[in-house]
What does this fold into?
Amino acid sequence: MDEATLIRFENDRISSRQIDELIGLARGLVADGMLNQQEVEFLQKWLVANGAVWDQPVISTLYKRVTEILADGVVDQIEISELLDTLDRFANRNFELGETLKATSLPLSSPAPDLTFAGKTYCFTGTFNFGQRKHCETVMIERGAMVGGLSKKTDVLVIGVYATDSWKHSAFGNKILQACELRDKGHPIVIVSEEHWVRHL
It folds into this structure.
């Protein structure tokens, strides 16, 4: 092997070991079903110290999310819930690194409708590449939309880009199933991917 190949092989080996270590760390953090600020800060420090794995899309998104959560110095319950869901799926290898949602396995509205915002009510579920859920909601409010939990008044449910074939068993699966039930009963709710939503911003 030439030197360049040896370096690439060594880097791949280190990256693989770090990912395995992160999976173990994630399993430890979600074991009791809770997270506190100290644990989130520890996770951030680990990610900073192991920057070699940032080229993995899911890990770079995780780092971005953790940094956003800690930016205001306070970790609230909504942020903890979102991060727990992400770490739990990562710990159980429920998605491959960099895997994004599969339109064929998610009950997205077809054809995907054109989206408008003013006067519409949006609900967000899952893990978003765009940012934390509150950031997605802020963008909608700025455009004249309303945001909130899923209800009969919801016009659009947006599913975060990191989802898998096993979405029915995920923490956000119930909300998707409820939206499908509303749609089946004739409520004019549409279900779209984060990708589709972003294209309309």
Q: What stands out?
A: The chain is about 50% helix and 5% strand. The chain has two domains: 3-91, 121-199. Residues 95-104 have pLDDT under 50 and may be disordered. The first strand starts at residue 121 and ends at 125.
